[in-house]
Design a protein that fits this description.
6-stranded parallel sheet; alpha/beta; 434 Repressor (Amino-terminal Domain); about 15% strand; DNA-binding; 12 strands; 6-stranded mixed sheet; Rossmann fold; homodimer
Chain lengths: ~350, ~350
DNA sequence: GTTTATATTGTAAGCGCTTTCTTATACAAT
DNA sequence: ATTGTATAAGAAAGCGCTTACAATATAAAC
């Protein structure tokens, strides 16, 4: 144990030994104070805290992890998005995550899979002894089975799963789409088309379901001709919309499954010399900030991405700390934001 | 040392001992093979590699760090941006960083300062024994002096510094702005205004300098009335532009120091019943993807954000590995992207 | 004042790895 | 053969922390 002096080993940070020496207690006591576990007399606790302060001691996390075999860092796995929505979604999600993770003094480790076979990637991640739990955004990917073989908890964002032990935080895509279409119906529309998202992505499927469900509920026949096969890309939406407008009996309204696609759709309308909402009403999905910059301002379904990030972070931390049992399943409500891209039909 | 068997301690990952047992060598040899240092006979190297493979061994990084006192993770510090440009800049930068960091098998640790006094934040970061180097994006902040007291290398992104040991990767804001204004001059404009960015941010100052410099070079007097005090916010740009258009002698062109602000400026023009580029020509800065969605499409100065991220990552890794000496200073070229928001004056 | 239960400390054994120091082996030069 | 010089491998000492476990001090109960 170090002598009772401020001097520490040359060129190094002070260690728990130095603090123990300074405070005149054992390193075990110091550890107890730092981690706030076990019982330590008030007097000693103060002495330790003073010593910590005086030496500006910070525990060596590698040592702590090695000794305790516990970790609390949060890993974040996301697909490599390169489009505009991706960057919007990513930053919004990050806002929520960071506002929980950093105040809780956890580390956030970004884990992108850049060109590595998926299995290898997951094996490598899971063997990182310093990751306590994972937040996953999968996009079109499935949950890799390797995840299940590990003890490391994970929570999936933006997807729902039936398996009882899987944790997820999602958004009511179906209800959101349903509300959007119901709104159009309420405005007097009955010939309502949809440009749906990629159907290999859950949100894409669910938004399409919401669309059909809303029509069926209102007794409006679902027409194949009005269901356009989109993939969340603006370009595709532009093409589909152009085709749709050239059809013999174009719709009076379109529910577009993402704002990114709505951008393409609006452009298609304008390029045809037509007008939104005069000739055609449009509802998007996401509430990308650019929507309120468009003219007309886009009516859209807001999804609480930041809130989803926040909840995902809170959940994974509780799971890491074993304060919550696996099987956390939450679906957040969307909200229809009505702006200027829809008109009432007499 | 473990017996020569596949069995490992219950519920744990295999350790270097297990590999040594399996391969019939000492743990020192295993360590040498894993880290590819020292000399090991080919035969033994193979045996170790086989054992590693068979047991699916992954080294415990905490233990490795504790023992070696070396780290290779990259920390990324960014201010908390909440606006649209922030999210664009952040994701673009991240693309570059991730494409270097992950293939190099480093970890990327996100370090946001959420409500912590700056000094405390940096002290905490620097004491994290598992961070080898930092990439910093400072926005309006200065380099915290605490950084200099540590041995941990760092590279600043999006800012330039004279001090010889500071590493940075930046962008030629001055030249970019200069080119933009020269372009306007070349189109026949001489009454050219600017809405500049926040002057407590380096890029804001430099772009303003580029503007004045270009005018001076062309013998056009710099008029106080044509320099409008912006702050990178769209709203401010809208107000300044509105005021400018109401002036007795409005300019024929405006260099707006960011696309985000250009959005506000365009709106101001439209709201006045005027037209871009008919009544007023506009050049932005950044090449935010939304610029090509606007009508008219915005002429702007593209800055290579992704490239900056890539270089920053490459630099910090070399600095961590001591393959490069401190004092790396790079400034990347911008590029004028001419689109439809400027008209030629006869 | 004992005895017993409880709160408080300290001791010491690791956690899984790196690395120095020794020792053993191999090969070339004499 | 003998010596010298690399090379190759192992033993063992930590790295800085956590955490049984043992030891001691204190408080409560009789």
């Amino acid at each position: 144990m170090a002598k009772n002096t401020v001097k520490t080993r040359k060129g190094k940070f002070p260690s728990i030994d130095d603090v123990a020496g300074e405070a005149g207690v054992s390193i075990a006591t110091v550890s107890r104070v730092i981690n706030n576990i076990g019982s330590v007399k008030e007097r000693n606790k103060l002495k330790v805290l003073e010593a910590v302060d005086k030496l500006n001691f910070k525990p060596n996390i590698s040592a702590s992890r090695l000794a305790s075999n516990k970790v609390n860092s949060v890993g974040l796995i996301m697909p490599v998005y390169d489009d505009m929505f991706g960057s919007f979604f990513f930053t919004e999600l990050m806002k929520g995550i960071r506002d929980v993770v950093f105040p809780a003094r956890r580390d956030l480790i970004l884990l992108y899979n850049v060109n590595e076979p998926e299995d290898d990637f997951y094996r490598r991640i899971l063997n990182k002894t310093y990751i306590g739990g994972l937040i996953l955004e999968l996009g079109a990917l499935e949950i890799n089975p390797i995840l299940g073989k590990s003890d490391i908890p994970y929570v999936v964002v933006n997807g729902t799963y039936d398996e009882p032990r899987i944790n997820y935080i999602s958004v009511s895509n179906r209800t959101g789409a349903h509300d959007a279409v119901k709104y159009l119906i309420g405005m007097g529309h009955s010939r309502i088309a949809t440009i749906h998202g990629a159907l290999n992505i859950q949100s894409g499927r669910e938004r399409l379901e919401g669309y059909t469900q809303a029509l069926e509920e209102s007794g409006i026949p679902v027409s194949r001709d009005l269901i356009l096969d989109g993939n969340f890309f603006r370009k595709t939406a532009y093409e589909k919309m152009t085709a749709l407008l050239g059809a013999k009996e174009p719709p009076t309204a379109v529910f577009v499954a993402s704002d990114e696609m709505a951008l393409g759709a609006i452009k298609a309308v304008k390029d045809k010399g037509l007008n939104v909402p005069g000739d055609i009403s449009l509802v998007g999905f996401d509430d990308n900030p650019m929507c309120s910059e468009l003219s007309p301002k886009l009516t859209t379904v807001r999804q609480p991405i930041t809130e989803m990030g926040r909840l995902a972070a809170e959940t994974i931390i509780k799971l890491i700390d074993k304060e919550e049992k696996p099987g956390v399943k939450k679906t957040l409500a969307t909200e229809l934001i009505t702006r200027d891209s829809c008109r009432r039909i007499p």
